[in-house]
Design goal:
259 residues; alpha/beta; Rossmann fold; eight-stranded mixed sheet; 32% helix
Length: 259
């Protein structure tokens, strides 16, 4: 096994299959890169919340809009969806998804003008994507167009109130109130959730300070053993997703229903 590939011990988990890596540009996260593992696990936790808490209709079509490396789309497929499509705009990314997750369908397209018919999907997910878009209201309207009646939309985004500033790939980060305001014209929001550090990360931070600040302070080659060990060992289980105190959360997750 590649020593830089961090897994939770299950041979079929996407991190194992992600050993064929995409270039790390800062725009997306990916499994199998040890110094990126905290961010990957943080993203992974949101997808796993979906598969654990929301019904995936066996006959329903699922779209992962802005699928990136493809690990999330693969998790949705393994949760029981008969058809999962990963949508992205970049050819290298889509070739990677085809190779590493061959049972995930792929489509190339612009998120604000997708190539799909009206009401095409029972579930649409788009995780940590909307903050990258210039036309956020248009993207939400497009999600409403392609989602079937009574279908489920799940979006996540970093909380602007807690996320480190300076990510030049982000065009507009959102607060919880702004996120809700963006969706309300088109959807009924059924759950508003926040992602936070769980007990192990909180305990580490009580001794050493913010693990996010520590990761950003120096190149990973200069991390001390305590920080490197924490990052290498972090999994989706080190995060909690729950309602309440959204302004204090790290990431925001909205679950909504189409009319």
């Amino acid at each position: 096994m590649n020593p830089d590939v961090v897994t939770d011990g299950r041979e079929t988990d996407p991190p194992e299959r992600g050993a064929v890596k995409l270039p790390l540009t800062g725009e997306r996260t990916a499994p199998g890169i040890w110094h990126e593992n905290y961010w990957f696990a943080r993203h992974d936790a949101a997808y796993r919340w979906i598969t654990d808490n929301l019904p995936i209709e066996p006959g329903g079509r699922v779209l992962d809009a802005g699928c990136g490396e493809g690990y999330g789309a693969e998790l949705l497929r393994r949760a029981g969806a008969s058809s999962v499509t990963g949508l992205d705009y970049e050819d290298t990314t889509l070739r990677h998804v085809r190779r590493v997750y061959p049972q995930v369908n792929v489509a190339k397209g612009n998120l604000v003008q997708t190539p799909f018919a009206d009401r095409a999907f029972a579930t649409v997910t788009s995780m940590q994507t909307i903050e990258h878009l210039w036309e956020q209201p248009r993207f939400v309207a497009e999600c409403a167009r392609i989602l079937a009646p009574q279908g489920t939309l799940v979006l996540s985004t970093p909380n602007r109130l807690t996320f480190p500033s300076g990510n030049w790939y982000h065009t507009r980060e959102l607060t919880a109130a702004e996120f809700v305001e963006l969706l309300e014209p088109y959807f009924e929001i059924t759950q508003a959730l926040g992602l936070r550090h769980g007990a192990r990360l909180t305990s580490w931070e009580s001794q050493y300070g913010s693990c996010v600040d520590a990761q950003l302070a120096t190149p990973h080659e200069q991390w001390d053993d305590e920080l490197a060990g924490l990052v290498r060992s972090t999994t989706y289980e080190d995060f909690e997703i729950r309602p309440g105190d959204l302004d204090e959360s790290l990431d925001l997750i909205l679950v909504a229903t189409a009319g």
